[in-house]
Amino acid sequence: MSSLLFQPYTLGPLQLPNRILIAPMCQYSAQDGCATDWHLMHLGQLALSGAGLLIIEASAVEPEGRISAQDLGLWSDANEAALARVLEAVRAHSNMPIAIQIGHAGRKASVARPWEGGAQIAPSAGGWQTVAPSAQPHAPGEHPPVALDAAGLERIRTAFADTARRAARLGLDAIEVHAAHGYLLHQFLTPLANARGDEYGGSLDNRMRFPLEVFDAVRAAFPADKPVGVRISASDWVDAGWDVDQSVVFTQALKARGAAYIHVSSGGASPLQQIPAVPGYQVAFAERIKRDGGLPTIAVGLITEAEQAEAILASGQADLVALARAMLYDPRWPWHAAAKLGAQVDAAPQYLRCQPREFKTLFR
Q1: What b-and-e string marks burial along 304-315, b requiring 16 or more CB atoms within 10 Å of the CB?
Q2: Fewer CB within 10 Å: C terminus or N terminus of the chain?
Q3: Whole-angstrom Cα distance, residue 234 to residue 247?
Q4: Mean pLDDT, range 157-165, rounded to an integer
């Protein structure tokens, strides 16, 4: 039988040549939110990998929504022009579909880059004032965020919609709304970060309200014939936090609003999390959400081997698989997976001569 991993898949209205996705990975290499030559090199090589879809890293919808000061953004004309330059170069040599993840870091914003320690930078030390559902810091000792008022909520909803319109002008094929990893939309979902007493806090319906409003704003601002999906953390891995049961309810609500898929990750809301980081540790979440949530799911998290990815699809645990660090380590992972599974993959004509003798039909 032919490999499921390399069979085409329709994600909403978007046709993908295979079921391998490149997950968004922050590069912390932008200047005032603008893509640089690093992004040109980084995205360029990934677009030649043979994967089915490339998702550009989390791009902030406003300056205060950046994780670090070096995060990519899509809130200004300058940001849009810089990313347009990168996309033009990439598209000249690759027809891989390209999506973008858009988000807001909330209380986890204003931090140093990972290789510079990753600690929060307070306003007094050159950072900026963060915002959140409630005035509770992510970790003890951090500068507390300001709780968003009605005007702040409206500003951020509008920023998400404006960013979606910029993504449409750039001709991007899909949008992924970032509601995972302890960032702003996840902060509204989880009781670990949301202690509000108004219509945006308390019950599950109330905690889902703002993320769903943001999704509605993005969906309305992006072309109807292009998919909008959502990345979630299916579990906080902390008692009394967000969990897979609530994730199913959230998925059902997103389905009713026209979401195309759920990208299933986990964690990020609390430094108290206890994550069993073993191969495929999040796949069971994707399986449950696929079964009970009613939307296509993307499995991600320590998926490193071709046979492992194939087994996830063959068992029906997810519809697609996404790789992040494994793709950085091996930017030709789809080639090597196709060779192992007896499948075919697209390759640039400049690279056709490198096809190994033992895989005479590897390149389509």
Answers
A1: ebbeebbebbee
A2: N
A3: 6
A4: 98
Give φ, ψ of 338 to 5 degrees.
-65, -40
CA atoms of 55 and 167, how far apart (whole Å): 12
Q: List beta partners, residue 263.
A: 231, 298
122: exposed, middle or buried (Cβ count in 10 Å: 0-12, 13-18, 19+): middle
* Beta carbons within 10 angstroms of residue 91's beta carbon: 13
Q: What is the DSSP string of 312-352?
A: HHHTTS-SEEEESHHHHH-TTHHHHHHHHHT--B---GGGG
Asked if 57 and 70 touch (Cβ cutoff 8 Å), the reply is no
- Tens digits of residue pLDDT in 133-142: 999 999 999 9
What is the pLDDT averaged over residues 280-306? Answer: 95
3-state secondary structure of 15: strand
pLDDT in tens, 78-94: 999 999 999 999 999 99
Cβ proximity of 100 and 55 under 8 Å: yes
Q: Specify the length of the chain in residues.
A: 364
- Could you tell me the sign of the dihedral formed by the alpha carbons of 345, 52, 275, 58, in that order? positive
The pTM is what? 0.97
Catalytically annotated residues:
183
Return d(Cα 139, Cα 108) in angstroms, integer.
9
Average pLDDT over residues 175-183: 98
State the chain's mean pLDDT as an integer.
97
Determine the pLDDT at residue 277: 82
Q: Give 2's pLDDT tier (boundaries 50, 70, 90).
A: confident
